[in-house]
Amino acid sequence: MPGPSPGGSPERETGAGGRPRGPGRDRRVRFRLPHTAIALPTVREEERLFYRRLEALAVPGPGGFGPLFAADGWSDLTDDRLLRKRVVRAGLGGPQPRPGQEVSVKVLGALEDGGLVERDPRLTFVPGHGDVVQALELGVPTMQPGEISFFLAACPYAYGRPGREPDVPPEAPLLFEVTLLEVRDGPDPQPLPPAARLRLGSQRRERGNFHFARGDFAAALRSYRLALHALDGPATAPPGPEEEEELQEQRVKCLNNCAAAELKLGRVEEALAACEAALRISPDNGRALLRRGQLLAEQGRDAEAALVLRRALELDPASKVIHAELSRLAKRQGAPSSTASQDPRHDPMPPPSPGSPAPPTAEGAV
Asked: Which residues form the PPIase FKBP-type domain (predicted)?
């Protein structure tokens, strides 16, 4: 979710002053004036049922969702007990979604004050593809078709510490009501026109940036790989020269972001491989050159690192980061010969920052 949310751009029911519409605010008001009747917008029937169920849980209440995280009648979906499930209506007995299958769900989601911030009558996604918040990624595979369940999600399983402007505050827990409408086999990759491949690849890369900014680097990596899969997928027609150039640019961005995520996960060899893949497409990509030089220096491959960093400096002579890397490398190479100084672990290069000169961000820096 938003980045992308369960409902894409969820609407929010509001009343006077922009305040969220909550329970009991669906009254019809008539003024005693000749031939005049003013009707307030009614809350949809499913939302009315939703709020009744919230009231049965004593939500909203003075303690917000806090008491529900310790209440009976809920099952914990994670070891940290920050994502909980409560079945509202049992399913029809069909099988739970299997990995790779596509699901369609109806989603409503509320804040602790009862404000509705998610509403999607039919959200379709493949669990594990990283297109929705973790509460749905982890919760929906536990459901049966026809089932209605609550998912109580602390901020790591909702919108994280940053929240989602303008309607989800930072570190906000959310309560989702989810109805599993349909489960079907995942669609086979269909040939797409180049413009559609570019659009899908960009969406998945931005979703990866959303996860990266929130510190979920494994989910970010999955999204970047799915973006590459979309960019490299079957096409209905060969791309034109401009489209091919843009496809290559998008591939390089995704590979650089893969390298950044791999580094955050402590996988240096995989990060180096992603840099080299980016450079095979774009040999003069400054970001990939700098990160590859840093990684080679960290491994003690000083001669290779120096060549790569000098090439990066030729492309960006004003870069203070590259100058600093070359200076540290030169000092290490010029140190007095000794067993300790020859051991690359004795005076290691600083760990490369995952996004040098800047990590991928939710704004899509790369």
From this structure: 100-184
